[in-house]
Records
---
Amino acid sequence: MVARAGPSHKGDEVQVTAQRYADVLVVAAAGRIDHQNAEEFKATLLPHLESCGAGRDQVVLDLSQLEYISSAGLRILMIAAKDARVRQGKLLAVTLQPVVREIFEISRFTLIFEIHESIRDALLKISPAALAAYESKSL
Amino acid sequence: MRIRFWGTRGSLPVSLTAADIKDKIVAAMLGAAGKSLRTRPEVESFVERELPFAVSHTYGGNSSCVEIDIDSGDYILCDLGTGARPFGQHVISKKGATPNTFHVFMSHLHWDHIMGFPFFAPVYIPGNRIVIYGCHAAMEEAFRRQHSAPCFPVDFAGLGAKVEFVRLEPGKHHRLAGLVVTPKLQRHTGGSYGYRFEHGGKVVVYSTDSEHKTDDASSTQEFADFFRDADLVIFDAMYSLADAVSVKEDWGHSSNIVGIELCQLARAKHLCMFHHEPVNSDAKIASVLQETLRYEEITRGDHTLQISSAYDGMEIVV
């Protein structure tokens, strides 16, 4: 038996927070994203991508606290990925819970997003400065 | 209601290649290695029970054509893709040249949904009556144009059967062919129409060539209502969600994920994935079915949704 992941129930919420490490913004999404709150997710996520671009910030999506995402939420992630690509920036996803990883695989969003097992792995790939800042804060 | 799938492939009919058949035989023989299969019943039992469907069978390659059998004496179809050819042969082999009435509900007039009509043998037999229902103004023109030079050697005027065209109004409940039929406009280039068929307390929805915008809450609710409590939803699940919202956005088709979400909202009982991508192999379609079953499992609330993937020759009784 798996944890409830499916259709939303009243009171489901999504929270989006951001933490800067040098030239990388780690944006964390927590909760559940479905057709009822996808627009709210969009409104809170997309402003964080405005500084994303070549020679500017890169963005890492920390999904460790995301319990479920529906097609409506995945569509927002697709918009974010396209937006980052247009700006020639990088948008990576990290630390997907098992259910969310399965949803990414079934929906083929694994072909859209570069996925890493941890924030550290992602920073190691895209920014030594951000990795250093992350590790100094983690100490 | 007994639903028979005569054509389940999307966009373009396809067939297995010599290499595909060889691969299936090799996989079957490897599966049989070490087993004692000496008689035909033993072999058939092994094939049916132990081999994966994608090895022992095929999803088929005919384009859209679905029969709804309510034991009324008349024939009822959705669309006239190339699946109409084997359906026509089936009718003739069963009933010979006796006159029959065929009621056909057209989702739309794109090529893959009408291309079986010139090869639908009953259309050449005098005494047959074929009533084609749809919501498009150009319905009769599309069929006549297909049956004229340079597209086809036999002109529409030379058909033996009596062919009638009946325009339906979307959103209205029509009493036709022993069914209550409600058409609904769907998002597809040129427009397509889904049909909700009700008979004897059962509901079957035929909804193909339909794109769903997941950010359109009112449309989502409309389709949830259209599918409401259906015993079976035949659903265009041609693409992955990632394709449907990126490179194939606005191509007019949907995904397995959206099919599940809409059926869960509607509390439909059975989702049957339909209009398979022509490039997908049997193994690929089977793999998508397994993933879709898993997606239903991990998103299940208090309502269980049965999932299947249509194949040419499949029957579902509701």
---
Amino acid sequence: MHELKIAEELIGIITEVAKSENLKKVTKVNIQFGKMIMIVPDVFRFVFEGGVKGTVAKSAKLNLEILPVKFACNKCKEETEIDDLLFVCPYCGSNDLDLTQGRETIIESIEGEKC
Amino acid sequence: MEIKIMKNVLDRNKNKANEVRNLLKEKNVLMVNMISSPGAGKTTLLEKTLENLKDKFRIGVIEGDITTDRDAQRLKGHGVPIVVINTEGGCHLDSHSISKVLPEFDLENMDVIFVENVGNLVCPSHFDLGETFKLALVSTTEGDDKPIKYPMLFREAKIILLNKIDLIEYTNFNKASFHVDLNNVNGKVPLMEISCTRNIGMDKWYNWISKQISSK
């Protein structure tokens, strides 16, 4: 249930930005989570909807994108996107890899109406 | 209208973790974030480690527990400072809770702090505490599929301990399959087979952790 803590932090950022930008209503929230974060989208939506009750984002639509895992091979330098979370370079078989994508918990933007 | 933010949602945790990491570096204290499922043997590993290393190093313990201080009670007899963090339902520790309890330790006179995270293989691996490294503990009674099911932890850990190796013959734990999966998730991480209760493979662990503490 790390979804709960992540949603709490997200709602904190949204309300802060909405206040400083003078928004009366947040209509959409655009976020990206890397696959390694293992967010269950339905669970995340559930806790998000619970958390935004009574806030400026209470009717906001959540646009959640899951980013695939990518790594760069330190041996042959190829970059690979994987679906199966097998951390072995398909080009040279090396397991000396650096994760280049898949651990993100990013809020890209919010959309809303000014006061 | 759209307002661009492009920010890590967990920035607050990350920033506090960096503060903790800098403080520990300044005081020359190693911090080990111990992660496993409930019942894998974190507290027993700590008991044995304290028994073996408490005369050699100045050790502190942070016990993360959802409720109760039972784990801390088990460790009490060893005469090392122990601080309990009750997460009150929370499934992981975070850097703010660690930062809050650090002043309870005499960091000037400390070599290592072991943090026993809440028993859970998912959530704790996503929250940086400011630790020097993560330790993953798994046991043969849990099944051999943990690395492939929880890749984040097994990618991030600096050391993996496979506990309850003495019980393997009573389980359907397939060592070959465990090794293949672990190799696919993280082929570079050291793995040690141990039994905390039967004292198997423990010297290798004590040597490894002593080396980490000495070379910090």
---
Amino acid sequence: MIEVDNELCGHCGACVGVCPVNALDLIGYQIELVGDCIDCGNCIQTCPVGAIEGEK
Amino acid sequence: MIEKDLLVIGAGPAGSTAAKFAAKKGLDTLVIEKRQEIGTPIRCAEGVGKNVEEFVEIENDFISKDVEGAKIFSPNQELFEMAERAAGDEVGYILERKKFDQYLVEKAIEEGAEVKLRTRAKDIERDGDSIITKAIRNGKKIKIKSKIVIAADGVESRIGRLTGIIDSLSLKDIESCAQYLVTGIEDIDLDYTHFYLGKEIAPGGYAWIFPKGPESANVGLGVQPTRASKKPKEYLDEFMTQLGLEDGKIIEEMFGGVPVAEPLETAIDDNIMLVGDAARQADPITGGGIINGIKAGKIAAEAAKRSKENENYSKDTLKYYEEKRKQEIALKNKRNYQLKELFQSLGDEKYNSIVSSLKGTDFEKISVASLVSELIEENPEIAEEIKEII
């Protein structure tokens, strides 16, 4: 399961676009988990500021 | 339940353009935008080719800078220059994106489109020959029933994925970007845009300086996540140091993901069309997406009008959009995607030799086509690959 640091987040939505299961959404100034994360790590690798951490 | 002919999701350049032309053609049009303000936060380097004038009446209000050309630096710091009109979609004007986006929305409103801010599409489902979009507006659930949805929801492109038109972006087809708006710049020629290549600076992408004013510029870079060993923000801080701007006065920090993907085989389904970054229409080499988004919005509006005339909103009647966007956007993007793949596979030494071979050429006189033939002549070992692509 991932964790998003919304204070570090730059609110760009890149992580949303690479999530293969549509589990993320950019809501206002927050990235929120809106579905079931499969721990693929795409969002972690894509985030331009390193605001997402998790198992992969 | 709100009922409309057309719902446009997202009020960036692609969505606003679609709404403007659709409203003008007599469609009852609603635009929803999840943010509370049009155009923010910026997630763009703000460069656009001068051919934007074909689509938008240029007002000084949203032009930050009219640039003379591009300076391109190889990894070993050799330089070549290109005149503005040869350099493509990323060079010409540097926009004030907030004002530009707001201007485009105003134009849509003038034509009769309605706009609702703070309204986020959450889910979408078909209902007979219509489509129902469930959204959250100011914290409350609303439903919007429309004949057509134009999804202009940016790199997130949740609508395209919820409806199964597209899959998520592959990590090799996205550029992860960081950018600062820096002021108090003294020693950089701000009549030009600057591009920097090299795996130490921006692996799988490039770094840029896009002038915004006499002493200010967007300084940023994009990297391909699979080739990067650090985060874009870390590369950017190093790039700032390399430019001598480590003490630079940063007045805005921006981040973004830019799709640099192959054109979609299909960007429509019954009742739905995808436009702009949501349809991955940014140029895969430059990452520039504004003009293609505007083109797509305009075509999608015409397709929507035609389907309303026929009272048929199926995929078949939306084919007009598919055919036109393939001619006007996808053809070039397909070629540029292949070139991007080739360029990304070349090492720094190859970039050095290419830039070195181009030095001294008179770029006032040449086009991108002759630039490519020059590349082939000077670098025969990659000639076959380039010829195949072109």
---
Amino acid sequence: MTFLYLLIMAALLFAAHKATRIKGLLKAALWLSGTSALTSTLIYLMGSPGIAVIELSVGAGLVTVLFVFSISIIGDEKITGEIFIPKWLAISITVVAFGILGIMTAIDSIPQLKAVQAELIADTIWVDRKLDIDIQAGLIISGVLGILMIVAPTTARWMKEKRND
Amino acid sequence: MSLETLIPSLILFPWLGSILVWAMHDRNEKRIHMTASVVSIICALVSIQLTFQIGNQKIVYYTFGAALGELSFSADAMGVILVLIANVIGSLAVIFSMDYMQGERNLSRYYAMILLFIGAMSGLVLTANIFIMFFFWEVTALCSYQLISFYNDDPNAVRGGLKALLMTQFGGVGLLFAALMIFNQVHSFDLNVFAEAAVNVDIEQGVLALIGFSLIIAAAAKSSQFPFFTWLPDAMEAPTPVSALIHAATMVNAGIYLLSRFFPAFAAVPAWKETMIWVGLIGILLTSILAITTYDLKRVLAYSTVSQLGYMFVAIGSGSVLAGQFHLLSHAIFKALLFLAAGAVIHACGTRDMRSMGGFFKRTPFVSTSFLIGALALTGIPILNGFWSKELILESVHKESSTLVLILMLISVGLTAIYTLRCFKMVFMGKNDYAHLHPSPPAMKTVLGILSIGALTSWIAISWFSESLKQTLPYHAIESLNVTEMAHHIFSDPITCFALGITTIGFLIAWLLPKKEFPESLLKLSANSFGFDSITSGVVQSIIASAERIRCIQTGILNWNIFGLMVGLLGVLIILFMGR
Amino acid sequence: MISKIIIFGIVGLMGIGIYCLMITRNLPKVIVALQVLIKGAMIAIIYAGDISGNMDLAQSMALTIIVADTIVAVIGLALAIQAREKTGSSKIQSISNLKK
């Protein structure tokens, strides 16, 4: 079991690294969907199959589709110009900060993972966490507007061409 | 009407009127004037109705759900008297404005702000919840700022308004701090709960002193006392009825009200009363001298307002809340009268510079007489209301404070006489050829007449005044007085003779003062308020300069923002790591 | 041991995300970095729910995180597209230029 966790975690970190550092937006999007899929597997192993399914479908599915669609509009631009923070500084501050965080957590006796299987309990979501649901509704509405904004330029162009024909 | 309907109507009715006037958008000038005066007159009548509720010791609670909690209001004499002043003088100022502001632009904004102010002032003094008090306190500051900067194409007016807003914010911060400390100590914003806890010594002495001194800062900033006194003279860019209402009769009294109300809670705090006396006294002396050396009619009155508010500080510091409150009433009436009479003069000749005035006594006898009544009340000439209240203050100082304070107070009485007579002489005596003087319209005259009668007779109310204060404020140790007792008190005290003698000497000095102008250097110094203005602008300049210097860290670049975030995280982690 | 691996993973994901946010100047790439960062946060929430026995609460919070994180991606991409349309560049700075 430990080995499985280790393997997934290593793959997850590798995918995340690739997603952020690889040249080319399309490749980055694909690596990101890989990250998402691995996260979903991990969550499944940790005992939350419901969340894992949603993460897989939304994170690896919907977001990737949107990414690919957007990249097809934006194109892959190579950014030139001023670099604001030197790489060595960024790496060192990240490593130091998260290193301290990791060490601090690791020194303490961490409670063991129980990995109890839990279902998505409807009562928790619909009754106890009603506020969450309301917030999610609001978020989803803004998400729909965002999607409209993504497709707006393409649609406009398409309509114009159609009119010209 | 019962208390439950009177209190909200006093706050909400002017606010509704304010919205109504605001919505009128300057379309029909006459209708705006009429609406505003009708609303304010109704408010004044309702406030008179409220005076019959004094002695009804009920505290009214309005429950507003879990978020706001309970808003509590109470109608004790101290609050009701200020409500009365705010609403009655407010309505008089609005009526006066009907003539004074005729033909001005943005009238809807003007009246909306005045009505908003009247409602907020009523709320400020009626509430028994210090947090709600803070809310109304800030609303009055907003109205004051808006009305000072009413002529917003005049850079001086905008500057004066901003200065008033910024300096009174010290008061707001002080009050907020006190409110939070009170909540921290007694777990309630209710003033009565706090007063009880303070009187029963349930609160630690050090904390109590901290609250007391932050309240002094709040009051000094709001009432324009030393060292915050420089905003009031600059606030004189406001239209004159606004100066009369907000900067003489009501808003500046909010600080006095605050200190009077909390007096029993802090009376035992060491040096609290002494601080109040000296804050008042320094303000009185500085501004009396400033009033002698300025040539702007409204600034003279503003300086005298500061010094009269200083008298009230000294009165409360000497332990006589009654004298302070009584002087507050007298001062509200005669200073409103002085301001409005000055407004009529300014309306007639179109300037505020006293050097180009003169000879008004023959041209406008009615206005001049009412100004004279106000001026005599200000100097404390017998049987006018200012005399009684000022002598009560001097008597309490004589009884409770040191001789040095008494001597300085007597000197300030002389200075008051000097600047008042000098001002009267320059404006109303002598000769001047005005080709054209605007006549004073009837509404102005009516208002001045009512206020003159008030200045002549308001002292008769002392027995009602002291009795109701004594009844409703059991902790304040107020003795009830009737007219004969008061007269006996005052005339049996030798200080009265001293004060009258010094006033006479002051009159003589002012009369014999040569007509030639003061030297340029002195005028410059007084325009700068003896250097206090430079301190203020220095503080402002240094804040602006430091903000300019650190603005380079706001790059607006995401990478740097994240970098800053990481530095912060690192700091937190290091602190956590060290604390293990 | 498994706990340590998970903690290490959370810290690693967040570190990678933050590092990318610190050096990237490309708006779609910023969104990728945010996604990675949020994945770390989500695993942390699930982990915390598991060890404290509040799995229901953790799950419903994770659900909110998924929704919010998707919406962030959508809005970010929409902004990137609009910035590209208006200014011809998908630099992060070009969003600031949108208001002009």
